[in-house]
Every structure is written in structure tokens, then in C-alpha cells.
Amino acid sequence: PGAGMSLAIMKLKGDWNKLSPEAKALYVEMRDFYEKRFNAYRAMLEDRVNRTVTDPTARQNINEKFRQSLNEISKLIRKTVHITDEDLKRSREMVHYYVYDGYGFGLDKERPYHERKQWIDAHVVGKYTHVAKVEDFNLKSGEDLDRHYQGLVDEGHEGAILRHRGMKYEHKRSKNLLKVKPEDDDEAEILDIIEGTGNWSGTGKVMKLRWNGKDFDATFKGTQEQGAQFLKDKNKWIGKKVTFLYNGLTGLGTPNYARVDINNCLKLDR
After folding, report:
1. In angstroms, how far is CA 6 from the centroid of its own chain?
2. What are the helix (H) ranges across the chain?
């Protein structure tokens, strides 16, 4: 692969914001790799700056279609008895296997990622019926990134991974690989505040929220001292509307990784 970055996009359906300026600058300077990624369960892009999705209605409509497909896939792969020809046909149509990385096939884990990826594309992709290629796009600049990324978003792709092209294989979370996802925000009503456990005992660590007719849990973000006061004042908070942050929706249509920043959750805070 040439110098620059390669672009990784997970083929989930959704509506995404652009990467933050900080993320662009960091990875363009590092001459990184942005590689196409597909994931049936959730997106893996991380934005460094809080963003709001500009068309939530479009996202909800797309999410409903995705949820239906996910439910069908889940039923297909878990079925172990009374498997019909139609089940097998739908499995072939809907289930694919993507190989992102690996080692031990003539290249050890110290070799750079782009060499391992070349080997996978040459010796795995196309040799097995249900293995699909993980595409990547070489980019020259932040502007090039914006252009490619927006085009992929317009096509309905969702999610990305930034990867350092020269990284070795690591059996852990790596600083050479950045998951990028937009950060949405909205308002919800506090139904209850739940005391934490362990080190967070005596504090309000979790709150139950109601949003668009759905109830879900959100994590308290703040200091332990603030959490203790939050729990003490729970009756003052219950019934209030607060701003919460989340990363898209789960398969059930509830906010994913919901959390409330106690220092920036009321309109008067902003």
C-alpha cells in the first residue's frame, strides 16, 4: 500500500458525523491506515469531539431495518435442528466472514500490518465461499479523508477504524488502532438513581432514564464526591430532564453506552 491512510468502514446502515479535527490531524500526521470494516452488531468509530446527528429520523428508520436483519441473522446462526433448505439459502445470502488481521501464516506478528493484510487478501479472500474482502482506501490528506468518508456515509456505510499501517500484531488494546464513532446527545427524564457498588458504594453511579417511551440505564460521569451528593439529592433530581450522551442505538432501539456528565447535563450548564 502507498503512504497515507487507508479507510475502514463497517457496513451497518446509519447516519454519521464527520471525524473531529483532532482525530484527522493526529492520524494524517501518523500516515495511518483507514480500512473498511463490516460489523453486524455495532459501529466502531470514535470521535474526539461531541457531535449531534443532524437527521435522527433517518437514523431511526435505518436502525429499524438493521434491527430486523440482525434478528433474522441471529435466528439463523443459532438454529441447530430442523434446518431447512430455505434456512441454508438465507444464511448464504446474509452471513459473511471478514478477516481483518492475523499471523502465523508465513508472517510473524512483528511484520507490519500492511504486509499481513496483503497476505490475507492474496491467500484467504476468494479461496473460501463466504469470506469477503475487507476493503481499504489510501488517503493523502484530511480533505481527502473528508471526501471519501462523506461518500461512504452517503452510500449507507457506518463505522470506521483508523490503523497505523506499520503496526505489529498485538494481543491487547493498541494505541496503533483507533475505533472511531460519533457521539450523539439528547434529553431524557430521570426515573431513579441507583447506588453504586464497591468503590462507588454510597454514590449515585447509575440512573434510570426515559427517552422516546423507552427506559434504559445511564452511567453517572463525575467524581465520587459529586456522586455521593447526587445520591443524597436523588429526590431533587428525579423527574428532571437531563442531557445524556450515547453512541448510536442498540438492537432494541435504546441508547448505546448512555452516560450523563453531571457537570454538563442541564441547559443552564451550557
Report:
1. 18
2. 21-29, 56-78, 85-94, 113-123, 142-154, 224-232, 234-237
Residue from 219, 222, 203 nearest 259 by CA: 219
Contact status, residue 189 vs residue 216, Cβ threshold 8 Å:
no
Query: Are residues 165 and 35 located together in one domain of the fold?
Result: yes
Chain CA centroid to CA 15, Å: 12
The model's pLDDT over 102-122, given as tens digits with 9 standing for 90+, comes to: 888 878 889 998 899 999 999
Residues 86 and 206 in one domain: no
With contact defined as beta carbons under 8 Å apart, do 193 and 204 qualify? Answer: yes
Q: Range of 243's domain? A: 184-269
Q: Which pairing describes strands 204-211 and 214-221: parallel, antiparallel, or unpaired?
A: antiparallel
CATH code, 208 = 2.40.50.140
CA end-to-end distance (rounded Å), the chain: 45
- The grid coordinates of residue 156 equal 449507507
Residue predicted with more confidence, 99 or 180: 99
Q: What is the percentage of the chain residues whose pLDDT exceeds 90?
A: 27
Answer yes or no: do 88 and 25 share one domain. Answer: yes
